[in-house]
Amino acid sequence: ISHILATFVAKMNEYQAPGQKVPTHHHPEGVFTQSRVLPLLADLAWKHRDGTTVKAQGIAWLSHTTIDARDKLFAETGVCWTPMHDLFGWDPVKHTVLGFMHNSLRGHGDEHLRNFWGIGRKSYLKQQLKEEEKEEKFSESDATEASEELGALIEE
């Protein structure tokens, strides 16, 4: 499936900000269109992780050249490479929904929905999040700058 995902990711990344001009009936000169991907469904064991660490572990897995080395790293981290790590804006932790079995048997669904998606979040936490979001206003130039920095880091 990786070869399919790689093609998909490459095409989706073409439509990150500012997007691509797509001609329409009312706008034959084209309108800018952006695409995003919604979270994936997966059957994963739950551990508290952050997307940056998981992505770094995936890159480390990819950098190994032998099956034994990759298997050993996977046994330690539970992470392997996926082309989804290349998808602009994708967070392998925040954009993963736990499978039904883990939600019901291990009771993680409640925490996942409340903490990551904010469904049923307590009002004081909602207010705290609103205040944090006010401080995190990003302009188009911020997004462009971040994208350029990411590109430079990837090239390193």
Description:
It is built from seven helices and four strands; from the N terminus they run αβββααβαααα. Helix 2 packs antiparallel against helix 3. The two termini are 27 Å apart.
Please provide a brief summary of the model.
The chain has 156 residues and is mainly alpha-helical. Helix 2 packs antiparallel against helix 3.
What is Rg?
19 Å
Largest sheet: 2 strands, antiparallel
Give the overall average pLDDT.
79
- Shape descriptor: globular
Q: Which spans of ≥5 residues are poorly predicted at pLDDT below 50? A: none
The ordered string of helix (H) and strand (E) elements is HEEEHHEHHHH
How far apart are the termini? Answer: 27 Å
Biggest sheet, spatial arrangement of strands? 1-2
Helix content: 40-55%
Beta-strand percentage? 5-15%
Give the helix/strand class: mainly alpha
Individual helix count: 7
**Quantity of strands, as a count:** 4
Biased composition (Acidic residues): 142-156
Biased composition (Basic and acidic residues): 130-140
Region (Disordered): 130-156
